[in-house]
Write a structure and sequence with these properties.
- The protein is about 0% helix and about 40% strand.
- It contains no helices and 12 strands.
- The strands form 4 sheets. Strands 7-8-9-10 form a 4-stranded antiparallel sheet, with no helix packed on it. It has a 3-stranded antiparallel sheet with strand order 1-2-3, with no helix packed on it.
- Strand 9 and strand 10 form a beta hairpin.
């Protein structure tokens, strides 16, 4: 039998068997905390319309995919939402666009309540009190 040497470099394992190399990718299911009530954050954005976006930085995977999560605080640094959203935009007309980790998007109000459920594939910003939202089957509402 040939000799087997195992080298582990980051998330890649390189196995050499008798001079023939095999690359095995070792990955975790998720490097993001499943705690939806994350209260600490690593970065704070500028105040826009009285609210700031806060970020919790998670390690990048081997391919550089982003794992950060976002939430909101007000001007007094009071938490409006937990740092749990995959994508957020600043408040406009009292509502902010948010996207969860299951790729559903919707809107929250300035108290952090989800006023439009996170069940849509995509949505635009509020302008004049209205927005456009797209269901996952492509139908626009």
């Amino acid at each position: 039998m040939g000799r087997m040497i195992l080298y582990i470099v980051g998330a890649i394992a390189l196995v050499l068997i008798a001079g023939v190399g095999y690359v095995v990718y070792l990955t975790q299911k998720s490097v993001v905390s499943d705690n939806t009530e994350e209260t600490t954050f690593d970065e704070t954005g500028p105040l826009v319309n009285g609210f700031a976006i806060v970020t919790k930085n998670y390690p990048r995977d081997l391919w550089g995919n982003g794992q950060d999560r976002y939430g909101f605080v007000d001007a007094a640094s009071k938490r409006i939402t937990f740092v749990k959203y995959r994508l957020v935009e600043s408040f406009s007309e009292g509502r902010a666009y948010v996207r969860n980790s299951k790729d559903g998007c919707g809107f929250i109000d300035t108290t952090g309540h989800e006023v439009i459920p996170l069940i849509y594939a995509n949505a635009g910003r509020f302008v004049g009190g209205v927005t456009i939202a797209e269901k996952s089957d492509g139908e626009q509402l």
